[in-house]
Amino acid sequence: MTALYIHIPFCQRKCNYCDFVSYAGKEVTIDAYVAKLAAEIPNTEFSTIFFGGGTPTLLEPRHFEQILKNVAATFRSPSGHGGLKTAATLEITAEANPGTANQKKLRELRQLGLNRLSIGVQSFNDQHLQTLGRIHDAATAKRFYADARSAGFDNINLDLIFALPGQTLAEWKADLQQAIELNPEHLSVYNLQIEEGTPFWERYASSLPVTRYSLPTEDEELAMYETAIETLTANGYHHYEISNFARPGRVCLHNINYWRNGNYLGVGAGAHSHINGQRWSNPNCIEEYLQHSTRMPPNDSRVATDQRETLFLGLRLLDGLEQDKFTGFETEVSELMKEGLLEAAGNYYRLTRKGLYLGNQVFARFV
Ligand code: SF4
To answer: If you measure from the C-alpha of residue 16 to the centroid of ligand 1, how many angstroms do you get, rounded to a whole number?
Structure first.
């Protein structure tokens, strides 16, 4: 069963750390963009839908309706029994930014069949939010969360970022505590990545002296990650992927499919697809995307090195992967086990705690 990813590349303002395909000040193209998106979705069955961005909640309910109407008519139950299901029975997630939708709009989205929100809170500390260049403060994020609950969303993820410039361990603990108090079903915690081409890259990766806040050291960053694992698991969240924690039964089905290297179709600017071992992506530029013919031909297609992808994606899950999937990689496995980064568990290989911290070193062996 194929999952559907829908990319919405519009943002009110660009955050200082962001290298996603997202643009500020292009809202005039939203109508044309949505029409293009809706036309790009083929008449087939999908298991989950994920509106990612960018800021999907900048769209109006009528835009979501236009897209979902196109999809819902072709949706079938993931159980394969063939009966047509309404969109409301599936996992339909939208990423959301605090301050970009009021309760009325969120209610309308819920009524259209969206049943999961992933809210980009990032921090509850106003000073850090300002440094990140976010458009909201902590109070707005909390109000937004309350509005989402009142609007009927009973499956909510909060995104948090740690290892922020000048952030202390105590501040990170306070962020975790405030998130837990809100009691979301799911939490994603990421360490800040300094990506080339972003204002943060200029500030932190250039040879110029850092004038204000410096980044936490590697040891401090590790302590923050360990604190997240310990705090969230102690509060009833199951740690199921390197950066993801869920209440029982609330894992993100869309992302699980991605980590299991399943089939997914990505529509919209910059969206990636993976169908039956073939991968391709759409152009990042909105104007270029709008000019393409309706069904996107693979512009970046290659015969997938699918086994490698299966390994390094699947190892992100804490359960790991069946040992027989590692055929041909016996040397890498044995080296990683000697280094204490990988371990056998039943007939699975999975990352050790050390391997979780050093995941990128493990994945690099399979690339
Ligand atoms: S809201 Fe998200 S996608 Fe938009 S600029 Fe900020 S980090 Fe990037």
So the answer is: 9
Kindly give the distance from the C-alpha atom of residue 332 to the centroid of ligand 1, in angstroms, as a whole number. Answer: 37
**CA angle in degrees (0–180, nearest 5) for 273-81-109:** 55
pLDDT tier at 264, thresholds 50, 70, 90: very high
Residue among 113, 192, 117, 133 nearest 11 (CA): 133
CA-closest candidate to residue 189, choices 240, 147, 155: 240
- Report pLDDT for 306: 83
State the architecture of 2-259 in CATH terms. Alpha-Beta Barrel (3.20)
Q: Is 22 in the pocket of ligand 1 (CB under 6 A)?
A: yes
Ligand 1 contact via 9 beta carbon (within 6 Å): no
Confidence (pTM)? 0.92
Q: Count of CB atoms within 10 A of residue 168's CB?
A: 13
Q: Is the CB of 57 under 6 A from ligand 1?
A: no
For 300, other C-beta atoms within 10 Å of its C-beta total 11
Q: Which of 151-155, 241-245, 252-256, 307-311 has the lowest mean pLDDT?
A: 307-311
Pocket test for ligand 1, best of 10, 11, 130, 192 (most atoms within 8 A of CB): 11
Nearest to 352 by CA among 332, 367, 338, 365: 338
Give the residue extent of every domain in the chain.
2-259, 320-367
φ, ψ of residue 4 in degrees (nearest 5): -120, 125
